[in-house]
Amino acid sequence: MLSCRRCLFCKTVSLSALLILSALSTQTHLSAQQSAQHHAAIEWYAELAPSSTAANGAQASTVQTRATGKVTVTVDFPKQTLTFHIEAKDISGVGKIEVRTDLTRSDAAGSPIFTIYAHDGPFTGSLTKTVTGQAFEHLATPILNSRAWIVITTDKNPDGEIAGKIIMHKHYAP
Question: How many domains does the chain have?
Fold first, then answer.
């Protein structure tokens, strides 16, 4: 924009243009920050399938069941929370839903490190549980390092009927 140094009109237009550009710049910066906070999401999933069990060093055998399920684990780092959302179908007599560490990268036979559900009323096939504090600190490392499994035990299969490794999946929310 051409302007003269003495014209009040040109000074007013230039000042207005600067104020508008400044406001747009601030709004764009805030929108970019909000986008970064709300668009990148990292979740962990476990696809639950018939569990494999082994006793006394014997070869693992797979549980015969029609049960399946999926677990979504959402990690909120600023709030230090883990939220487990469990969906399971064709399963009855659920005893426990546990998070276990793996002994090797391909098995769920490790020790339970957290119990999500333990006969806390009838299991209806869907459950959501959020953990914070020490439980968050205890669970975050094995989950983030892909060393955690979800195992659902039943009266019929107390070592685990269905199980799945918790694996990270990154996606971008709209």
Answer: 1
- List CB contacts of 77: < 8 A, sequence separation 6 or more: none
| Beta bridge partners of residue 87, listed in sequence order | 70, 126
**DSSP string covering 13-56:** HHHHHHHHHHHHHHHHHHHHHHHHHHHEEEEEEEEEEE-EE-ST
Closest CA to 126 of 59, 69, 80: 69
Domain at 147, CATH number: 2.60.40
Q: What is the DSSP code (8-state) at residue 159?
A: T
Nearest to 139 by CA among 121, 158, 116: 116
- The answer, as to whether pTM is greater than 0.90, is no
* pLDDT tens figures, 2-32: 445 555 444 444 444 433 434 444 444 444 4
For residue 169, with 0-12 CB atoms within 10 Å meaning exposed, 13-18 middle and 19 or more buried, which class applies? exposed
